[in-house]
Amino acid sequence: MNAHTKPEAQREVTGLDLLRAPFPANQISKLPKPTKAQTDEVRNNFKAGIRCDICGGWHHPKVVHLDYVGHAALTDRLLDADPNWNWEPVTDDGLPKLDQNLGMWIRLTVCGVTRLGYGHAEGKKGGDAVKEVIGDALRNAAMRFGAALDLWHKGDLHALDDEAPAPTKQEPRQNRTPSGQPAPADQAISSLTSADTLNQLAAIWQDLPRSVQILPEVIGAKDQRKTALQSNPPITDDEIPY
Fold first, then answer.
1. How far is the C-alpha of 42 from the C-alpha of 52, rounded, in Å?
2. How does DSSP assign 165-227, residue by residue?
3. What percentage of the chain has pLDDT greater than the value 70?
């Protein structure tokens, strides 16, 4: 090996490879993902919510949080990878083309490579909605380069099938703990069946203890809810959690 050549492990990561590098903890934010039932409960009774120590928002105390990388951190990473990176909208007669959901497709170019991305603002209007569409599209396109892909994978329901252990024979369980609270399996089933999106279902599953994940009735509840959501997915299920 040449004396001026760095070992592979010590070489500086640059360009497109840098987009695949994990984001540091200080650049990862938390996105609350309440179920519809949790949202309705707090809407009907404001005092049912809490000021969250994790994300700073006001929501149901049992809300699941997803990791995501925000617009500023992503832009910083793009600039580090390629100071000349650029994006442009997919146009129609020279103007940005919006679909029936007021979403927009873009082309993101980094290090001479161009990939498509899509963004929308979930029904919001005005200037802030336009900025949100752009930011969402950039995150979506950057994911095609591998940016924050590890965070997206945490919200990918396919991980349920990869990580779920095979059902094993279990001893009969009690429906209540000695303190009178519902058994962990019953709590897990209730949470899984209340998930409104595939992403929420994945997040709830990953938060369950392994001792609960292996219970056949819990696995069955997860699979049943997954099938129901895939058959009739909600409009907001395509949100990317980073």
1. 13
2. PPP-------SB-TTSPBPHHHHHHHHHHT--SHHHHHHHHHHS-HHHHT-HHHHHHHHHHHH
3. 77
Query: Cα separation of 44 and 47, whole Å?
Result: 9
Please give the span between the terminal C-alpha atoms of the chain, in angstroms, as a whole number.
41
pLDDT of residue 156: 44
In angstroms, how far apart are the furthest CA atoms of the chain?
69
* Dihedral sign (CA 51, 54, 55, 61): negative
Q: Mention every residue, 6+ apart, whose C-beta is less than 8 A from residue 128.
A: 121
Evaluate whether 186 touches 215 at the Cβ level (below 8 Å). Answer: no
Q: Is 4 exposed, middle or buried (0-12, 13-18, 19+ CB in 10 A)?
A: exposed
pTM as predicted: 0.54
Burial (0-12, 13-18, 19+ Cβ within 10 Å), 183:
middle
Per-residue pLDDT tens for 122-169? 777 777 888 889 988 999 999 899 888 777 655 443 444 444 444 444
